[in-house]
Amino acid sequence: MxxxxxxxxxxxxxxxxxxxxxxxxxxxxxxxxxxxEVNLIIEELVSNTILYGYPVEEExxxxxxxxxxxxxxxxxxxxSDDAFPFNPLESGxxxxxxxxxxxxxxxxxxxxxxxxxxxDEIKYAYLQNRNHIWIVxxxx
Amino acid sequence: MNILKNSVDETIVLDIEGRLDTxxxxxxEAYMGDLLKQGATKIVLNLSSLDYISSSGLxxxxxxxxxxxxxxxxxxxxxxxxxxxxxxxxxxxxxLFQIYSTREEALNNIDS
Lengths: 140, 112
What we know:
By secondary structure, chain A is of the alpha+beta class.
C-alpha cells in the first residue's frame, strides 16, 4: 500500500506526520516500535530540510513530498524536496556520538545519526533540482 | 506534551507526558529555562509517560544538563521505556546522564 503526504517548509507542518502515522497504523499490522522508528526517520530528515534547506524568507513557500510504500517484506520511504542540495550520506549519517564528557557532545549530527541507525538501506540522489532520499526498513 | 511539576524537598520532579519532538521541544526548553532562573539545582525528569522523542528533545535535555552542571546542580532521568532508552544509547547520552528505572529510585539516589 502507498501513502503520501505533502507538507510545507514550516516547522509546525511536522505535526501533520502524526496523521500519516495514524493512517499507517490503522491499515497495517505494524508494531508500535516500527511506527516510532519510521516517524523518527521522517521527522529527522524533514525537520533538517525545513530548518536548513531554504532561505529564511522562503518559509512556507515550498513543498516536501513524503511517500511510504508498505509491502510484505519491507517499508520504503521516499522524501523529495526542492531545498538546497544536501546529501545526508556525506554528513556523518553513520557516525556514532559516543562522547564521554558533556562538552564533547556534538549535537549537530544527532538527528542524522538516528536516521542512519534505524534505516536498513539509504540512497540519495539530486535529480531535476530536487533532493531525493530513499530509505528501506526490512521486516524481521 | 504535558509537563507536571512536583517538589520533593529541594528536588523538582517533572513528569513529561506525550511527545517531545521538533514541535513541542520549545515548550520544555522554556520551562526548564524558567526553573533554572528560579534557582533549581536538582531536577528529576520522569519520562515514564513519554511516548516519543526525537533529536530536538534530546538537545533540550542536554542543554538543561549543561546549564545545570555549570551551576553545580544535577539532572536525573528516570522511567525511560526500552525504545527511548535505545535512542539515548545510540546518541551516546546514556554515558552523560544518571538514569534510573523509577522516580523513587532517582529520588533515593540524589546526592544530598
